[in-house]
Structure prediction request, 254 residues.
Amino acid sequence: MSHRIALVASHGTEAQAELEALKKRYGDVAPEEADVIVALGGDGFMLRTLHRNLALGIPVYGMKLGTIGFLLNQFHHDDLEERIARAQATVMRPLIMHAHSESGSSVEALAFNEVSLLRQTKQAAHIRVTLNGVVRIEELMCDGVLVSTPAGSTAYNLSAHGPILPIGSSMLAMTPISPFRPRRWRGAVLPATTDITFEVLDPYKRPVSATADSTEVRDVVEVRVRESTEHTMTLLFDPEHNLEERILKEQFTV
Prediction:
């Protein structure tokens, strides 16, 4: 059975050239008319593709034509329809961030990788951490803190020495960035149902920004993070390179 394919690509020269070649070979329809979206680029472009097409509810099959391709398959010209037909599906559920700024504005944004809070000046951030209405850390002194999905746990979270989470684990990783106090706290693994609130202490002297994937909010005073119950996106992977196996390999990379 053939699929109606929507082809999209990053602005890179190679990705644009291959986009035109694949259009001639396999055809191309608008995402709104497609059975599957084929994305050409790197992980950053894949995340943008997921955000742009969230409302369509159709799967995305990515091929790596960028710098980093953890969320993508290897690029090949041949057998695209056959690869899509036998691909394995991974359902991704994003985080939802509600950020309230010092000016009184509120921003809601989704994150398939992570929500991160970062200090904006040379002053360390002072942040109160509350889980499900219970204060767990009265004052976290740090450069920042992030909450990661399993898919995002191998990205910024891993660079900040956070744990790698198996796909389908229904867990989140909370990882501090350069923590100073509490001295020995190195983060936590939380159930995906956890309602997380970060309160910025002394936001005028110690301003903090919050970012959900590529959406940044400056001068936040409170940020709430939880797993979305309303949104999902499906990624397709070649069976020999599925996301579960990639994440497992990352746990044994030395």
